[in-house]
Design goal:
heterodimer; A: mainly alpha; disordered N terminus; B: about 300 residues; flat
Chain lengths: ~300, ~300
């Protein structure tokens, strides 16, 4: 990273022989990301999907939970009635349901990932920075949890304590933090011996302060990559839970719930599968492309 | 090396114990119980039932008696399948799930690995993008959707043609009945393996020893298959460890969709019925599997990578 900066700064100094504009890691990453067209397009598509899911339902003629009592059956797209993408098997507007379902899926994805992020970064940074026994203990715990089929626990939790939105993202987040902790620990270990940490220590910074002010900001790059790759995984896990009948409760819906309903009616009402499937796969595609692009842009390795 | 693995195997025991402990108390502390049916059970019957399953004993006593039985291979009686013990149910279901899982993994390696490797041979070509795109599709479409799609295609649309396949049921493991579920189970793994092997192969082709091999004048084929492939396999093998865990969840889906009597389906039904003992039994067996799979993966490392030494 620094070598790239130095050579380009050096080049600039040679040509202008004047003052040099420094570029931060983030500016550098942003430049690299902008060159990756797939990642950039993904970012735009994700933004559009998120915006449409947030705002769209207010602009549609039908609310997501209203049954069209004149047509209590699945209907192909019908412009006159305002069902732009048709209705589901009980006559609810499919587009409205897909958009509201998108809100739920995206929210579960983001919130669960944030939970995972919080636990993972905390555990990883503490283990890496303090080292010794604490590190041993925490990493053994991570190893132990790794060898447990954790989806089982999410299912048990959801069954035992009911289908609850908050519980869902907490439970998923609580099982997705392991990789995050390992990555952050690895990064922290290599940061720990850097001069600026030594300087912070020498100037009397507390351990907690150094971790918060110096370690965490510096691992964010790697963490962001992992976040973009975790969100689609969580959305998939949510759809799996919905398949088992453990998703959000009716009339609220999610992409997983819709896909599951749609897959069962595929033969007679293909639109009930196709509409949510297009939204969900587009989103997951974009997250994956964006994650790969961010990795290329932010990961100091493999340049 | 052997002492390392013996130690790893020993570490597996406290891990399993932790699983048992966690599972046991999680389920007992949760509200509701296995006898909350549609129709309320008369109090006398409920008292008898609770007595039969020792649910009135102190919790720690239940735990230790469960643990003791577990050591003798007895997972206790099932709450819902009254005529069977959990051990019997698992003994019936496990071979089915293992057969399907192994077939799926083998199929996935046989398809995914060549896909990933051929993609790297012509990097950034149309073939490369096609493989990457296909892999991404395999990853982002949930198994239950591909399952239903294939059932519709092969069970309904192709009905009456030679390509018709049974859309469900197990039929004692007849070959035709296995094709669809194993394919569906394998698809995400094909995708992951293709993706991982592509990435690691690209990296391997850039290493110095591959450059040396090419400079020596070895045919490209030999360089790829003999030199690069071996080092590119390590990440694929790494994936196989967690893949066992994925396989367990995947089998829940395919066994439910295709009505296959494996342990995945027992887990789902057990969880929905609050069949404590059945759910715990399957979880413990599943955890044991993941532990052993991770161990095997570590042993394979040593075979593949001469730099890996276990002390």
């Amino acid at each position: 990273m620094s070598s790239v900066n130095m050579t380009s700064a050096h080049g600039a100094a040679l040509t202008s022989a004047g003052e040099v504009d420094g570029r931060s890691l983030w500016q550098d990453a942003w430049r690299r990301l902008k060159r990756n067209r797939a990642a950039l397009a993904s970012m735009i598509v994700l933004g559009v999907i998120a915006a449409v899911c947030l705002i769209g339902p207010y602009t549609l003629p039908w609310p997501y939970d209203a049954i069209d009592w004149d047509h209590v059956e699945a209907m192909p797209p019908n412009m006159e009635l305002g069902h732009y993408l048709g209705t589901d098997s009980v006559g609810r507007d499919l587009l409205a349901r897909t958009l509201v379902g998108g809100r739920v899926s995206l929210m579960v994805g983001v919130l669960a990932t944030l939970v995972a992020l919080f636990i993972g970064v905390t555990v990883g940074a503490i283990a890496g920075f303090i080292g010794g026994r604490v590190d041993q203990l925490l990493m053994r715990l991570v190893d132990l949890l790794y060898s447990v089929p954790l989806t089982f626990f999410v299912i048990i939790l959801m069954v035992m304590f009911g289908r609850n939105f908050i519980l869902m993202f907490l439970a998923i987040g609580a099982v997705e933090w392991l990789t995050m902790a390992r990555i952050v620990r690895g990064q922290t270990l290599s940061l720990k011996s850097k001069e600026f940490i030594e300087a912070a220590r020498a100037s009397g910074g507390s351990t907690a302060g150094i971790i918060l002010r110096h370690i965490v900001p510096n691992v964010l790059g790697v963490v962001i990559v992992y976040v973009t790759l975790t969100i689609p995984q969580v959305i998939l896990l949510e759809s799996f839970l919905s398949f088992l009948g453990l998703g959000v409760q009716e009339p609220l819906t999610s992409w997983g719930v819709l896909l599951n309903e749609g897959a069962a009616e595929l033969e007679v009402n293909p639109q009930t599968l196709i509409v949510p499937a297009v939204f969900m796969t587009a989103t997951l595609f974009c997250f994956n492309f964006l994650g790969d692009g961010l990795r290329d842009a932010l990961d100091p390795k493999d340049r | 090396m052997w002492s390392y693995f013996a130690r790893r195997l020993l570490i597996g025991i406290p891990t399993l114990l932790a699983v048992v402990l966690f599972c046991f108390f999680l389920m007992r502390l949760a509200p509701g119980g296995p006898f909350d049916g549609e129709a309320p059970v008369p109090p006398e019957v409920l008292a008898n039932l609770r007595a039969r399953y020792h649910l009135d004993d102190p919790l720690w006593q239940q735990f230790f008696s469960y643990l003791g039985n577990l050591l003798r291979g007895d997972f206790g009686p099932s709450f819902k399948y009254k005529d069977f013990t959990v051990t019997e149910l698992i003994a019936q279901g496990l071979p089915v799930s293992i057969e399907n899982g192994l077939s799926a993994i083998i199929l996935a390696i046989l398809i995914g690995l060549p896909l990933g490797i051929t993609a790297t041979l012509s990097q950034n070509s149309a073939r490369d993008y096609a493989v990457s795109g296909l892999a991404m599709i395999g990853i982002v479409i949930p198994t239950f959707v591909t399952g239903q799609l294939l059932i519709l295609a092969f069970g309904v649309w192709l009905k009456g043609t030679p390509f018709q396949l049974p859309a469900g049921g197990w039929n004692d493991g007849a070959f035709l009945n296995r094709i669809l579920p194993v394919t569906v189970l394998a698809l995400p793994f094909v995708a992951y393996i293709a993706r991982i092997s592509r990435a690691s192969m690209i990296e391997a082709l850039r290493t110095n020893f591959v450059r040396t091999a090419r400079a020596k004048g070895l045919p490209y084929r030999t360089v790829v298959l003999r030199h690069a492939l071996k080092s590119a396999l390590t990440p694929v093998v790494t994936f196989l460890g967690p893949a066992t865990a994925f396989l367990l969840t995947g089998s829940m889906v395919i066994e439910t969709i295709f009505q296959i009597p494996g342990i995945g389906r027992y887990f789902v039904q057990g969880a929905l019925n609050r069949d404590y003992t059945l759910v715990m039994g399957v979880t413990i067996v599943g955890a044991a599997f993941v532990i052993v799979a991770n161990l095997i993966v570590d042993m394979l490392y040593a075979v593949l990578d001469p730099k890996v030494r276990y002390e």
